[in-house]
Hints:
The complex is a heterodimer of chains A (about 270) and B (about 290).
Chain A (H helix, E strand, L loop, with lengths): L6 H7 L22 E12 L2 E12 L3 E5 L6 H8 L7 E6 L2 E2 L8 H7 E4 L11 H10 L5 H14 L15 H13 L5 E5 L7 H16 L3 E5 L13 E6 L2 E5 L15
Chain B lengths: L1 H14 L3 H36 L1 E8 L5 H12 L4 E7 L1 H13 L16 E7 L6 H13 L4 E6 L1 H42 L2 H9 L4 H34 L17 H23 L2
Antiparallel strand pairs in B: 1-3, 1-4, 2-3
Helix pairs in contact in B: 1-8, 2-6, 2-8, 2-9, 6-9, 8-9
The complex binds adenosine-5'-triphosphate and magnesium ion (MG).
Amino acid sequence: MISPCPVRGKSLANKEEAPGKPPRFTKSGRAGTEFGMVEFKRVSYVFGSSWALKDVSFTLEKGGFLFLTGHSGAGKTTLLRLLYAGLPLHRGRATVAGFELHKLRRRHVPELRRRVSVVFQDFKILPQRTVFENVALALEVRGVTRQHMERRVRAIVRALGLESKSYTRCAHLSGGEQQRVAIARSMVVNPKLILADEPTGNLDADLTTDLMNIFKQFHSYGATVIMATHNRTILNMVPDAHILHLEQGQVAETTLPVEQDEPHTEGLL
Amino acid sequence: MLRFLRLGWRGLREMFLHPWAQLFTISAVTMAAVLAGIFLLLLHNVNQELIRNRGAVEFQVFWREGADMEQVRREWQRLAAMDHLKEMETFTPEQALEGLSRDLSGQGALDWLEEKNPLPASAFLAFNIPPGDHSEIWAKGLLAELRVLPDVRAVHYNPVQMDLAKSWLSVSRSVIWPVMGFLALVVALVVGNTVKLSMLTRRDEIEILSLVGARPWYIRAPLLASGAFTGLASSGLALGLLRLLHLRLEHVLDFPPVFLVISFLPMEHCLLLTGVVTAVCMAGSWVGVRQ
Ligand SMILES: Nc1ncnc2c1ncn2[C@@H]1O[C@H](COP(=O)(O)OP(=O)(O)OP(=O)(O)O)[C@@H](O)[C@H]1O
Ligand SMILES: [Mg+2]
């Protein structure tokens, strides 16, 4: 059975670890498995009175690739938002990249977000800034040196075919180009966990294939990827990917190893 | 430290990404500051005028009869250079007698006393009461100082005048500070809200920074810097406008019998205005991030 992951909680209590120091990764106590990069246990989320997620449990191992599928409104974005602490976790337990979301303190959110890169459904790029500036932002907030930053940004911008637009303001880019800027920004930091919300939503078939290749490349380097999508064709592009199908906030179907439910004690705690 | 400076600089650069929003903010803050400044100017001048008329303390100093007039004149010269002296009149025994006889019955009435003039040399001194809480102690000190002058027989002073001045000062103090506080509050509300509104234009940016893992101070430092800039620029502009206004209006009341030359705000008031506006702008940008 999975023991609760106390390491993160401990390290918070342990005053010897400076708050600014990167936290140690939590090792799942489960014998014989690698550490759980993402683990949800009976996670629910309510907006007002409607359940966006209900009792979602799954474990995605480090280096895994997971597609979140489901109709519009099924709760895919909500699940992803919980993962980067864009929403607070009130019901259930979740561990992401060594952070226990149900115990997460506000001041540790930036650290979580430095480990988890997100490609947003609505891009969330700064229209007044150039492509270069937008991509560099992710490195800038980490205090990366100028030189290193330029090298990395150039490399990723080239890989995504945005080289000629490096110094164009994002407001002047097409939807697909903006999407690629958003992807470049999330990849430029070499993330361990990539969350992507409909990253191919605005792209034609060729670009979709190109982009999926980039995700696959990062995946092959060891990054864990969770991607929400409507697009059934991309599911076949990653043969070893898992699928988690949501319906009305509940797991309807999944290729992930299913755990037997433990007695639900969250409400009592 | 260097990092903070860099972040601050970034904040200033970023202001120019939304030049119109910044311009509107600065204009709005400037106007609020100008209004506050006009009020301060008014208050300051009324206060000045009242203090000028009432806030004086008068002394009459009498020297001994037969005191050495050479020495007394030297004393007079020294007294004339004293701090806060507003008015001084001196009387040699002869002048005093002449004045007295004129007052009594016209020229020559007391001529018979000229041989042996019984009147002493005297001086009338009026001092402005310096601002501050210790005016009474100050006046007592002055009294003591005058009393020990060589050959001085007596010093008279008018404590009633003193009390009047003191009570005006205390009234003005008890009126001015609440009014200033109120004014600061109004400016704070106007300015704080304006700056907070202008933060809306940068809310996306703040959100995105936070989503890519920026620490709170990384987000705040540039905003504080631009808040400070907005505050300094606006209060600078406001003081400039006030000065222009003052130059235009300086002499409008300078006619008989008012003879009021409007004076500009003293340094402390200018600094106060700048400080309050800047602090409020910074506070506004601090609060604006909390969303
Ligand atoms: N901010 C919100 N306030 C209230 N309800 C919300 C909010 N965000 C999402 N919801 C609701 O939660 C449910 C799940 O939404 P979510 O955005 O996770 O769906 P989704 O699977 O991402 O859909 P799509 O494929 O259209 O992006 C929906 O019923 C939605 O109406
Ligand atoms: Mg969605």
